[in-house]
Amino acid sequence: MKISFAKPALPTEGALAVGVLADRKLTATAALIDEKMGGALTRAMNAGKFEGKAEQTLVLLAPSGLEVARVLLVGLGKPEEIDAAKAEAFGGSAVAALMGGDAHVTLAIDPIEGCSLFPAEIAARAALGARLRAWRFDKYMTKEKKEDKPALKKLQIVLDDHAAAKKHHQSLDCVAEGVLLTRALVSEPANVIFPESLAAEARKLAEDGIEIEVLGEKQMRKLGMGSLLGVAQGSDREPQLVVMRWMGSADRDKAPVAFVGKGVTFDSGGISIKPAGGMEDMKWDMGGAGVVIGLMKALAGRKAKVNAVGVVGLVENMPSGTAQRPGDVVTSMSGQTIEVINTDAEGRLVLADAMWFCQDRFKPSFMVDLATLTGAIVVSLGNEYAGLFSPDDLLAERLTAAGKTVGEPLWRMPLGDAYDKQLKSDIADMKNVGGREGGSITAAQFLKRFTNDVPWAHLDIAGTTWSKKDTATVPKGATAFGLRLLDRMVADHYEDA
Ligand code: BES
Ligand code: MN
Ligand code: ZN
Fold it and tell me: Per-residue pLDDT for 146 more than 90?
């Protein structure tokens, strides 16, 4: 889908989407076409029980008095409640309703009295929402009929201040690029995306100005990463540690911000093997790594004035004759030893070395890890909020606030010594599981032992990485949850003035 911005004009082909405010209050373009249609738009709203609530839509076919094939009414809700997310939902809902049938869609943006956003901002946000919603992963659908494929080719957004909208959209579109890269990587099956092929995808970011380094098994062995390597040893696929650096600050010596991702390209559970039902979902157990890769692309794309490091630990967790056994003791890069009680609690073993490496090598100002870490967080929070764990109140507040603005909400969970005690082992410094009680919290406590007290936050995205339903801007499937919130937090607090 190609997106362009132009000055207001009624289109002569395809579909026209217009906004309608709460209580059926028409925007200027909606009023204009209602007049041309002899009041049929108003009659249709009444007949279709369309009230103008946010995300509500109504299609009018072959409207007489107009040249377009369809008119779509999109509810905008109350003017004072229109924020960035609502503007994105405007674009997302419009393309969701029209992408099946129309090759050309025109979206009209009018000034809205009582709304805090300028039309240019609404337009740019609507374009972002449209792009995020129109994406689909259909590369393996070789038999899909043409009429079942989305028809939408061109989205034109019309408003007076189209030049400002276009400019504003450019930086938002870099974030969309990152999101779509993440979604594509996370959607790929595990026979296509495995540690080396995912590292190869990350290497492509060199084109965006990101410095890339890839460590293989040998180099990790040298660094003493026995925890990560223990997970990888049952697989024929070589593990990889990918380090990405975007040096966007004017001061190259400024301490970077750091993001660490769990990249288990397939999690069978290992010898503590998972049940067959739903195991296919474990192709997206690299969701955290996917977000970190996409985030680096987004930051570089919009030339963020920040030094940022992304580290992803890539492994496949498989059962085999060489696989790690329950009861094995491994030594992590930090020197701490771990008794592996359950080989399915592998994400924390990967992150233990990736995080220790990250803080040791880069001395970051903070470190945020993202991981599809526990089934328990899905029990706690379902699929709406991701779990946030951090001993650092300021970092936790900033993450929560950013998540709220971009529609990636976080819920802060507790940490504490009493939970940490659940990790006590009879043979090693710790064991890798803390029992059923508070499973997400003990997982976070485990990670905390590998932060070396650098300001740190952990996002457990097991419930939010994959969506079973469509929302206004996120179609079902891979969501890239976490990317927009981290990009937003960087933009709000960590870039050069
Ligand atoms: N990747 C899983 C967690 C997961 C579960 C992600 C469901 C997405 C959806 C993780 O590696 C895992 O297996 N965790 C175990 C930990 C347990 C053995 C302590 C779990 O949650 O059951
Ligand atoms: Mn597991
Ligand atoms: Zn896992």
Answer: no
Cα–Cα distance measured from residue 421 to residue 322, given in angstroms and rounded to the nearest whole number: 31
Distance CA 309, CA 243 (A): 7
Mutate to test the pocket of ligand 1, among 317, 372, 374 (most ligand atoms within 8 A of CB): 374
Query: pLDDT grade, residue 80 (50/70/90)?
Result: very high
**Max alpha carbon distance in the chain (Å)?**
82
User: Which amino acid does the sequence have at 394?
Assistant: L
Q: What percent of the chain has pLDDT over 90?
A: 98
Section 199-226 average pLDDT: 98
Nearest CA to ligand 1 atom 16: 345
Give the C-alpha separation, 323 to 454, whole Å. Answer: 32
CA distance 74 to 320: 54
**351 close to ligand 1 (CB < 6 Angstrom):** no
Residue 369: beta bridge partners?
A: 260, 458
Report residue 135's pLDDT band, with 50, 70 and 90 as the boundaries. Answer: very high
Q: How far apart are CA 295 and CA 366, in angstroms?
A: 16
Report the chain's terminal Cα–Cα distance, integer Å: 35
pLDDT band per the 50, 70, 90 thresholds, residue 147: confident
d(CA 442, CA 415): 8
Classified as helix, coil or strand, 200 is: helix
Averaged pLDDT, 386-402? 98
* Token pair 């397939």: residue: 266
Ligand 1 neighbourhood includes 267 CB (under 6 angstroms): yes
How distant is the alpha carbon of residue 235 from its chain centre? 28
